[in-house]
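pasting input
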Amino acid sequence: MKQRPNLAVETCGIPSPNPFWLASAPPTNSGAQIRRAFEAGWGGAVWKTLDFEPIVNVSSRYGAIDYDGRKIMGFNNIELISDRTLEDNLVEIREVKREFPGHALVVSLMVESKQESWHEIIKRVEDTGCDGVELNFGCPHGMSERGMGSAVGQVPEYTEMITTWAKEVAQTPVLVKLTPNITDIRAIGRAAQAGGADGLSLINTVNSIIGVDLDTYRPLPHVAGRGSHGGYCGPAVKPIALHMVHALASDPEIHIPISGIGGIQAWQDAVEFMLLGATSVQICTAVMHYGFRLVEHMVSGLEHWMIDKGFEQTSDFVGKTVPAIGDWGELDLGYKVVAEIDQDRCIHCGLCYTACEDGAHQSITRTEIPDEEFAASTGATFETSGGRRFMAGAGGGYVNRYEIDQETCVGCNLCSLLCPVDDCISMVAKESGLPSMTWAEYQARLERGEMEAIRPPEHH
Amino acid sequence: MSTSPLDPDQLTRNFAEIRPPFTPDEARAQASRCLFCFDAPCTRACPTHIDVPRFIRQILHSNPAGAAETILDSNVLGGSCARVCPTEVLCEGACVDRILQGEAVPIGGLQRFAVDWADGKGLSFFEPGADTGHRVAIVGAGPAGLSCAFELRRRGHGVTVFEGGDLAGGLNTIGIAAYKITTEYALSEVERVRAMDAELRLETPIDGAGLADLLKEYDAVFLGIGLGATASLGIPGEDAGGVWEALEFIFQTHRKPFAECKVGRRVVVIGGGNTAIDAATAAVRLGAEWVTVAYRRTRADMPAYEHEYELAKGDGVIFEWLASPLECVQADGRLTGLRMQRMEMQGQGRAATLVPVVDSEFTLECNMAIKALGQQPLVDFMASIDGLEVDHGRLVVDPHTGVTSVPGLYAGGDCISKGAEVVNAVEEGKIAARGIADFLDGLGER
């Protein structure tokens, strides 16, 4: 093996041995947990949000969405911030930091919107020797009803004001954690930066109701039969988070580092966040599902990917994909791909056919090939047992052959996305007969009478 | 012949279901493997065309009642077929997950899960159609007759089923290894048909003259008479005590407690079909010390399914290939062994000629011999019906309507196939029911 890459990162001046931090959440509720997490290999942790007084939580608190047999595709909670005393937490923060000086230990904070309160909590927390603080302007449930959390993060002026208060006393870097429950994340990101934030963490959870129990008609989760909107997270929210991270990373007005959060459960997810501009990443739901041991796979996956790609440190690729994403209007209307089915790999499930026929552009044909003829032409063999002949994919005397009509295929990707077989359906570039042009350029050509209006192919 | 040497508890364990039911967790996990194919190969490979992806998705999406309805709508014996079908060569043999994951979705197990769930809740999904005034006689309460009766009742035609035996359900009830399906379960599926107000008359055998009467009295008649006795070995000593017919041997495991079932200490089963395997594995489970299957051809020629052969091998059954019986050796009227000879196949496969090998005789010492040479068609009965076309023992029917050469007389099941699966009989009953319904429509309102 080549020399192992350097996974160490520095997020707004806070160093960590790798980019994988635990997000402020139940896994960072106590010193004992964070100690075990650091021993397991996590590079950093954001301590579960502190206030002067511990809150009181309800029971129950979590809900989940399963997806066709797999557990927890999406997750939500109505849990609040730390229910342990500030004093206990401060003692443990001090101990953990002393034991793990090289790990990033950031403390999440949320107090009433008063300048003196913010000043006091920051001073007391920084006294532990922690590496930084994260202002929780993100929680969409519970605390927001008391004027905290997302109630702050949804208003740029509040975000800037409180960030300013924090920076008035903070000796360590200040991260601001943003809520996705807004119209344009950039407004809040700019406000935090204007207030002096050293970095941005996002996304916090998405406002949600996770479900309803069909037998009792109760909301999920419920507390004595009643529910409340909660924060949605888990693998399902990753695309929302990626978009918001990119929106900030590509904003010419924003220059501070980003800690990416939202649905990360594997190393690939983390790499995507980093390619879109995150310096480090934070993880919660996957750890709540599988435990701290997950980080081993994340570190190993990232390492091998970096070796494969020839990256020596994470800064070699952080933000690499940011410039490739812009407005739809910048896309090239002359570019065309079409689907291609590798008949040798096709298992004849027909999912591509029915999807294209009913949900896309009617560009896949189905032909019933007599099974004898199919076997003769492909080298597939029948099996026999007790005089009965059978073959996977055959039935009723035929095998379905599915083929792309590349003249009418619009290159939407749908079939290649749902095909269960790796590398069976690929999207290949095809000459479109059109010049390379953006939509604006196309409009100009039409205006000048230089070309006919582009029409989609006729579908059967 | 003595009864099983094993104690009842051991026997109960031995005959425990070979494929235990899925738990809800197992069912969900297995259901999630189904790709939900379009024009699914499994459905095409199922003789009754059960919409397999549909019912599996219904299981996955917490709708086992809907799944059971999907299954029973295509196959009224869907719970039995889930247990006794050779799914390995039908739906599961066609499953594309065999290519993708190397293993089929366990369609039979999922089918059973759904039907059992609905039965556990006491759900029923079907009602008789509005009375048409037409009446159809069904001869034989086996799978074909039951299926035909069910479909006719859905269309509102009156149905009377005449069964010669004292139990309905045919071979599905008493003729299949007891570790695959219990008598009680098979009879519970008969109730699906009876619940449609189909009249079942047990112990009412019909002969040629009786059939002629039925053809006069009813608007149409369906024959689901199955097959007759096992073919004879045609060798000396066949009448010795201890020589059994395979089906009789299996029948006893359904008709009386296992502890009262007769079994030899050393058992030779003659034949190479699935019934031979069922008999051999039943003999092992009843406590026989040594069980051998003797087949005159090779393993490759054996009509038994591969998975049945593997099951028997796993049970410790010994196979003697290219071995043909010459004589049932007896002492004081009791079987003591089978004198055998080796055969040689000249040519390939079923067309090969079997030639005895010179000086190859040997004796298999045994006190029970089970003949499993396949059932013979009921030729005398069929010959007694004027104008009924029969081809090599097969009752000839139109494959699209089930009609025989006699107008108003339809047929399905083993009497037209000379022996196939329960699921084939169910489909043939459905086809004939459609044929009869069209025929009755032509007769107009009565």
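fyi Residues 16-120 of chain B form a domain with the Fumarate Reductase Iron-sulfur Protein; Chain B, domain 2 fold (CATH 1.10.1060.10).
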